[in-house]
Amino acid sequence: MLLIKLGGSAITDKSKPLTSRVDDIKRLVKEIAGFQGKKIVVHGGGSFGHIKAAEYGLAEGYKDESQKEGICIVQRDMRVLNQIIVDAFYEVNVAVASIPAGAITMFDNGQMIKFPSDVFSHYLELGITPITFGDVVVDISRGISICSGDDIMLQLAKDLNVEKCIFVTAVDGIFSNYPAGGGEKPLPIVARDSVIEFKSEDVDVTGSMKRKLDRMFDIASLGSKVYVMNGLVPDRLSDALKGNEITCTEVSGD
Length: 254
Ligand code: IP8
Known about the structure:
This protein is of the alpha/beta class. Helix content is 37%, strand content 22%. The strands form 3 sheets. The protein has an 8-stranded mixed beta sheet, with helices on both faces. Strands 5-4-7-8 form a 4-stranded mixed beta sheet. Helix 2 crosses helix 4. The protein starts with a strand and ends with a strand. Isopentenyl phosphate binds next to helix 3, helix 4, strand 7 and helix 7. The site of Isopentenyl phosphate has 18 residues, from helix 3, helix 4, strand 7 and helix 7.
């Protein structure tokens, strides 16, 4: 089984609130539709999740009444983004079931403690592709947390038999400097002991690039093959899904 994470940078313009990359979404969805095997699609928040979540301090937990509005806004906006993706699948005749993390996930102190991966496998058995996304979720000690698509990827990889995880981003892979200056080639393979210089933290409420990479190492350690690739280059995802060689970074679990 295959897990695909459509990262927020590939499906939205992260610098402009509520701006989806509709054409890229439609193309990526078509490329995914060409893969006949079992797959689960997870997507990130980009400019539908992170901007308002940061504005209302949602990643710090529930502190005061003013955040109620923010919880509602971020959950609504994430569902708007999800609907754009679900509609794109519908247009290419792929049956999908949308499963919002906020409806099924429980956190405690910022960590996922409950996630019903069996719901996903049940849909897969019916021949339906489950699609889920990072979301505002309940947290038994902090009130709320932000669950990232990467948290979900890790949990699904723990619970299900996942051969391959593909992280679709807006860059060619992982670089030895983050963020990359441009023009460099991505590292063909990274391991936990690879030297990567994180020059600046990115603005995501769910953590830095370093944290995302740690999640990928955790997934790779479970035995899944993990790749980071550029979804803005047409056909690259479909090539990856066909098993063709592409420009990307493999994340090693060693
Ligand atoms: O973009 C975060 O998911 P991510 C979702 O996968 C929200 O980290 C609501 C900010």
